[in-house]
Design brief:
Length: 182
């Protein structure tokens, strides 16, 4: 049996769960999410615990078991606590500011880049340096996608480390050109 799939999901008090056939809906203080569950996967609620059960032991069903449990656990955590992702902007003259419902990125190009934030994602910038972007939202998938799109405008380069990186990302630096020894 899947090690992840058989773990029960503890439901917080402020999460309202609805299981309607193959449709799973969770609502909390941060928002509301819904997902269709595969027909070979079943959800069983027992008080404040939710269990994900699979119909058979075929390989595709076993793969869906752990995936479904992880997706539902992320939905429950997202609508109750939310998720946060931090990006660090490194480089001379690089700066970021929040303007309206989006970000304005100055990343060394000839023009500033205006990045509209999707619905459900909030951004804030560290007011001291303007080099740390903090993204918050209740949908973990959308949050990760948004962070990846922002990072793609100027990925970190290995020589000086300039660019946009995740706060927990480690950039392996390369040595520059060595002077010719005579």
């Amino acid at each position: 049996m899947s090690r992840i799939g058989r773990l029960p999901i503890k439901l917080p008090k402020d999460a309202k769960i609805t299981i309607d056939g193959q449709k799973f809906i969770v609502q909390g203080p941060k928002g509301k999410m819904e997902r269709n569950i595969h027909p070979k996967i079943r959800l069983e609620r027992d008080g404040d615990v939710l269990k994900v059960v699979r119909a058979d032991d075929s390989k595709p069903t076993r793969a869906l078991h752990g995936l479904t449990r992880a997706l539902i656990a992320n939905m429950v955590q997202g609508v109750t606590e939310g998720f946060k992702r931090e990006l660090v902007v490194t480089g001379v003259g690089y700066k970021v500011e929040v303007k309206g419902k989006g970000l304005v990125l100055n990343l060394g190009y000839s023009h500033p880049i205006e990045f509209p934030l999707p619905e459900g994602i909030k951004a804030s910038v560290d007011s001291k340096k303007e080099t740390r972007i903090i993204l918050e939202g209740y949908d973990k998938e959308l949050l990760g996608l948004t962070a990846a799109k922002i990072r793609a405008y100027r990925p970190p380069e290995p020589y000086k480390g300039k660019g946009i990186r995740y706060a927990d990302e480690v950039i392996i630096r390369k040595a520059g050109k060595a002077a010719a020894a005579k």
